[in-house]
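Example for tutorial group B:
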């Protein structure tokens, strides 16, 4: 699980910007929203332009140099903060993996060029490569003793180099190192908008409806849409030699994309990823930006409930305050974000929040303050 994340000098984040998912309260309701003392289900609010989308890109920057999963270099243009004086962007991640605290920090000149890396398990420093001041890396993993410690390629992560070029001994430390990579490779980011951008988890492009058909989920997709309040029957048709999904109006079949509303199309995109999240119990972490941009507020709540059922750790961004309720989550799982800081509602007020409190009403009345 992701415990903490900190970034600086990246896009809109000039100074250190940290989200701490371990700063929780002992609420006795919605206990599944917190796991192992870490927020498992989070929703982020904030005015337009505070950097919610950039926070997602910052968290998923790690995909580029540690994995071979889907990436989007165009999204990482204007990499360094325009106001910053530093030549590098700095990133710090803290995870709970195999009951151990895994910390990984690095610095980059741009999306691809690495300046510094440091990897620790339970505060024990195991890998360090300061390319700014040194030519050799320090590698203290059992089984990597004979590995070359000089790497000229500044786009090659020392961690990925170790993973791909050693047969590490099986022990708690090395197994956690391997599990760390598995976690990163199973992270998924996508936007609930019409550009269908995604990062991590998979590679290449997929046709949404072809994939639903391939996974034999057309009937389940129909049920999902009806549960969401979209009364319909679906069929599989051939269109230009490709199998796709159509609405069935008493035998008259119309292609889904030609007649679906914007909201229904966005819902289909969500379902495409949702079926993968349900199917792959290994999906480690999901970030959905503007997850309900085209949804009715009741549908927004349904989507959150569906994600909760999977058990996956997720972060959603939204402007929809109608789902800011203790029925859905709890005060330490709703976050308010500004340009300089982010804090849960429970840490943004001196009031003792209880299950009966109307969080949305308090939020609109200005009861929560984040600098």
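The residue assignment follows.
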């Amino acid at each position: 699980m992701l415990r903490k994340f900190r970034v600086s000098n990246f896009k809109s984040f000039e100074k250190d910007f940290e989200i701490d998912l371990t700063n929780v309260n002992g609420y006795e309701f919605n206990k599944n929203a917190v796991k192992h003392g870490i927020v498992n289900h989070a929703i982020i609010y904030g005015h337009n332009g505070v950097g919610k989308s950039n926070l997602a890109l910052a968290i998923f920057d790690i995909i580029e140099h540690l994995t071979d999963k889907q990436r989007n270099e165009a999204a990482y243009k204007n990499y360094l903060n325009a106001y910053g004086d530093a030549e590098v962007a700095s990133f710090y991640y803290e995870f709970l993996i195999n009951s151990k605290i895994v910390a990984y920090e690095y610095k980059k000149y741009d999306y691809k060029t690495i300046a510094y890396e440091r990897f620790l398990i339970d505060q024990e420093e195991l890998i360090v490569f300061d390319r700014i001041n040194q030519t050799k890396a320090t590698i203290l993993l059992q089984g990597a003793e004979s590995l070359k410690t000089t790497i000229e390629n500044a786009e090659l992560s020392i961690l990925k180099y170790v993973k791909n070029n050693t047969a590490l001994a099986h022990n708690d430390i090395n197994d956690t190192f391997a599990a760390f990579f598995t976690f990163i490779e199973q992270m998924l980011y996508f936007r609930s908008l019409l550009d269908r951008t995604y990062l991590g988890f998979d590679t290449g492009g997929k046709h949404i409806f072809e994939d639903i058909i391939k996974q034999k989920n057309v009937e389940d997709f129909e049920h999902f849409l009806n549960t969401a309040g979209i009364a319909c029957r679906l069929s599989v048709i051939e269109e230009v030699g490709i199998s796709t999904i159509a609405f069935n109006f008493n035998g008259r079949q119309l292609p889904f994309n030609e007649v679906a509303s914007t909201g229904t199309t966005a819902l289909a995109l969500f379902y495409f990823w949702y079926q993968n999240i349900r199917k792959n119990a290994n999906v480690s972490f999901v970030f959905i930006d503007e997850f309900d941009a085209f949804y009715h507020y009741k549908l927004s709540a349904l989507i959150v409930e569906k994600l909760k059922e999977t058990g996956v750790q997720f972060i959603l961004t939204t402007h929809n305050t109608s789902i800011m309720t203790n029925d859905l989550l709890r005060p330490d799982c709703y976050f308010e974000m500004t340009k300089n800081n982010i804090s849960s509602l429970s840490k943004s007020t001196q009031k003792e929040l209880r299950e009966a409190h109307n969080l949305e009403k308090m939020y609109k009345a200005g009861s929560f303050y984040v600098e």
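The chain has a mean pLDDT of 93. Compare this with the pattern of hydrophobic and polar residues in the output above.
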